[in-house]
Amino acid sequence: SEANRRAVTTESYDPPVPSVQIPDNLRNSVVYGDGGHAVQLLRAKMAQDPSVQALVGGYSIVLREYALNLLMSWSKGADGAWGVQGMDDDGNGVTDDLLEAGFAGSDDTRSPLLDLGIFDGQKMDVNRPFGNGLDDNGDAVVDNFVESTGAERLWPNIFNATPVFVDHDNDGISGPALADGDAFLARYHYARQLYVLTLLMNERPGIDFNVNGSIEDYNGDGVADETQYNLAQWAVNAVDFRDVDAIMTPFEFDINPFNGWDVDGIIGTADDAHADRAIVWGCERPELLISESIVFHDRRTEDLDDEQPNGGQQAALIGQMGEMDNDQRLLPRSGAFFEIYNPWFNPTSDPNAPASGSWAPAEFYRNVTNGVFTNGVRLNQTTLNTNSNGNRSPVFRLIVVRGNQQHQDPDAFEDSFKPAADQIERAIYFTDNVLVNNGNALAAELPTGVAARNGHEQFFTTFGSNPLLGGQYAVIGSSGHHQNNNTYTTFIGRSTGAQGGGGQGQLDYANTRRIELTPDPNVVVQARIHNNINPGGHGDKTNTGINAAIPVIGLPINQHTYGGNTSALSLTLTEPIGGYSQRAGAANGVDGELELNPPLDTPLDASYNPDPVTGVGRDALMTQGTTIDFAVVHLQRLANPLQPYHGTNNPYRTIDTPSVDVTAFNGVENENAADPTLIAGDYRFDAHQRGDANVLAAGAMGQPSRNLWTSEPVSANVAAGAMGNDNNQIFAHSLTTTLGYLNTTYGTPRADGTPNDATGHPFPWLQWNNRPFVSSLELMQVPYSKSSRLLFDYTFDRNGGVNPYNVPANGDVAHTEYNHLLNFFESGDNTANFQRIFDYLHSPSAYSGAYTYLNPLMFGSGFGTDELHPPFNRVSNFRDPGKININTIFDPAVYAGLMNGHLGPSYTNWIDSRRGYGGAGGSLISFNANMPSLFSNPIRPAGSGDIVPLPGLERSDVELSLLRNNQAGTQALIASNYTDQARNARRNSSFKYQSLQRMDNLVTGRSNVFGIWVTMGYFEVAATPPSSVNPAGYQLGQEVGADRGDIRRHRAFYMIDRSIPAAFEPGENHNVDKTIILRRIID
């Protein structure tokens, strides 16, 4: 029946080969020749490089082509010579020349610049395996690169006792341990080939990724390289976005791959000094966020009459006559508290909460001492493996940077763009120090060394902590100056009821404002603020209504190391580095608090300005008010959490960065405003919360401001005139905070800070797969940012006014809907054209019969089986079933089945786009006298937009693809424009591109089984001068027999299956009979 004829079946085949056309501006290049593929384009790009021309210029044509093939496939080894160093391997009279690349006995590395599949005329598999899919070494991490350094078997011994080994990097070498010394570079090869392919397709050499108005020269050679660094970052991010581990992959790359690949992917080898060598580290999802910070400093000065060196002043004269500056008897006190949040709900988290769908990474959730998985991130996690001292390293830390370079990126691509090492004041670790307490199995060796960027001073804790569950908060901060029943208290000044001179009992601690941390796993709320007047939407934390399954964690930081010495010291960001030297001579006074005897006439904070170690000013601590942007704090983690710290091979990488403010005051007595050591200011005693700045944009285009991910910028300037409102405290300004629970801008909790039942818009997603790609188009979700910039770059399309198809005049302004993602919609001459790469990428068909799998026992090793060792032991049958030719759909029912309920263009909107002109008004057929076809804009290869009969039919590359725009030209045609809260497309790229990404596996622009009508006639031919119309010098005349009414024409019909491989060779039949599945000669 007619319906059955239109049924879609898996008998609709499509070959997994690129259907490509090189762009017009390259197609007619003399050096490019007659090629039609990325391999020819790569060859052409390399042949145009001056250094390559010098290298191969003396060869014959044949040898030159052979040399270019070698340059596309090999790189020099550590000896820096082609072939065996000092040998004439090929006997041509020249030693170490390019023609000797890869000779037996050399240390050259096979480094194909493009995927082997592309070289073979196929596509690159974006889900190319990195191992056997198993945890072979028992570290609970599947296919991490360490497994490739051993003899990883294709299957466990329980399936087949005959060992078949995995060839991780598909270089033809597999076998027992150490047989393939560079097998661990499988991820590196993947990143390199994706990087080169993207560079090859890009036509815009200078892309201003950081939008600062200039194209950076990161490696300092005088040539801008910002584009290469960021595309290399994106390529390696694709690796870490896909693989299941939480290891940040190092990617050593060549800034100019088109003159040969000059690096080996291994850190610490001779090529590190090469001028074109650079390195980026892959980005993993930020496992933790800093959601709030509080930093304050209490000068604790008094007006005394027994200070040194100028004794004898009368306290009663202050403010009238006599001494005007306060004196220092009590040591200053400070507090620094950071709220750490786990934004990921995993299957191991609260069973009543929705899971993120991504399994918890063992690198952070598994106890390395006993192998037991916990249900949250282990803040005190240490590395599984130990260093040369036999000690583990802490996985997480904070570093504190102050000075004129504090806002520079500690993970900048090159050292000259990083803050000076001397400006990293402190590092804060969440673990114990094994060099001090080696009896603690969870203790670690803390990295030290200023030049190594580990700070002048290291803080740590002697306490353990509960795992931090998804959605849970931990408060990490000062251990304070008072301890009672495992509760560590930091006082914020004194209460007005405190009476000095009568012992601690007279200091009215019970009514003094204070922050308490209780590192006890049996206490539900381990972080509290007492005696604080919080405005509505804030409040003191109580046990009321708190979910006992996700308690607030408190972790006091109570020890520090400075100058090789370790001592007890509460965490501080405001005391001078190493602490006040006078602390050593202080003793408990009459009130049980540390006192200086005799008191000092000059306040300590005035004496320590600037800091004697770094020379950085400390005016903020002598200010009567709040100073914004006092310091910058970076939350960091080890690049590889399984391996011990190494400054070069395994550094700490930044995952979140807030600025912190400091409020300085005198909490012991009111100061003389005329004190010459003081600086006038204004108070805003507020915590710096994540989301504070974002609330200013609330309501734009109906989009709420609940953006959890974006890094919080520097606080707004402090407004003048704020008055204290707490008459029970000497420092009368109340603290505005949500420490330990939801930030104010994300919702309004009850007065006691406990959750309420009102729900708002969900936070937007930061998609991070940690699984194979559904389709190659899912690469659109891979961020281009390094880990330290990801949350700065993260945005969502709140305003709805961004046209991603716009190409700015200078090509530098960000025109993306989601600023952390590459813009694959920009297209045209001298633009990025990133969408071109999708012609060369695919996720292989999962249908049975799409591949022939080769017996791994036969193809596991041996001569002639290169590139077919497991897990690459398969050969495409060039017949991927189940893909519909979207260009030829003419039945709305077929289109509806294709969309299957997903949002996207209506059938008529798709017909309008395919037609390429006008609007059809719902009609399938709508003729236009000026257009040659109803199919003027079908889906077709990039680069073919100008191969049309009329200039009005020319299209940019993006308009030839599934990424084409709608008729208005401002948004993608295939887009899931959900507006409901749970899946709002403007807030979530995951939903915006959902329909588009699935189409890659379901449709094709090619028909592989199609009918051909052939009509052959006879015409008169007349000679004519050659011209653009008749280049051969002949012109058709009338049809033979037209004047007699005796026209003869021959007609035939053929049905062709183009998915069957065929070839032409005179006298031979290479599948021609199978390809032509039906033939009829009619006349």
What attributes does this structure have?
single chain; 1083 residues; alpha+beta; 4 domains; 14-stranded mixed sheet; four-stranded antiparallel sheet; 11% helix; elongated; disordered N terminus
Quick summary of this structure?
The protein is α+β, with helices and mostly antiparallel strands.
Give an account of the 3D structure:
- With about 1100 residues, this protein is an alpha+beta fold.
- The protein folds into four domains: about 110-285 and about 765-845 and about 850-880, no CATH class; about 285-765, no CATH class; about 880-1000, no CATH class; about 1010-1080, no CATH class.
- About 10% of the residues lie in helices and about 15% in strands.
- It has 17 helices and 40 strands.
- The strands form twelve sheets. Strands 7, 9, 10, 11, 12, 13, 18, 19, 20, 23, 24, 25, 26 and 27 form a 14-stranded mixed β-sheet that branches.
- Strand 19 and strand 20 (about 565-570) form a beta hairpin.
- Helix 7 (about 185-200) packs across helix 8.
- The chain starts with a helix and ends with a strand.
- Residues about 1-10, about 310-320, about 540-545 and about 810-815 have low confidence and may be disordered.
